[in-house]
Predict the structure of HNH endonuclease signature motif containing protein.
Amino acid sequence: MGHTHWFKDPERDLGTRGITNDAAKLMIWAKTGGRCGACDCSLSMSEKPRRWQIDHVIPVFKGGRTTFANLMPLCGPCHVIKSAPERSEASRNKARTLTGRGLTHPEKDAVIASLRREVDALRAELVAIQETRYGFEARQPRRIPA
């Protein structure tokens, strides 16, 4: 399938991350005049292997779509510079979503401290209930070590 529909609707979402069609690659390359979208260096369409990448201006993980308007060619070095922090952020977000373990150390410390305060409050509430219900001073439950 060709991507000539982009000429009519550059916001049409292709629904896939990878652009494998040579005509689509040529259109993306040509939209910047064969130059890197970041540093403006010259990019060769004929060089094998191709030393440039097609990149999402707004990353997919931040809601970017695979549209002609949201794609640009980047030289290898610019692609690495732009993509490395995005990959790291995407990994952290995925880890938080899937496992809940993607927190930084200060964030983890804050969560742990909050949970300890909540456990202490629940223990105190339990002691108060036992004192009220049984009419004597209840033994404090064992504290979880820090």
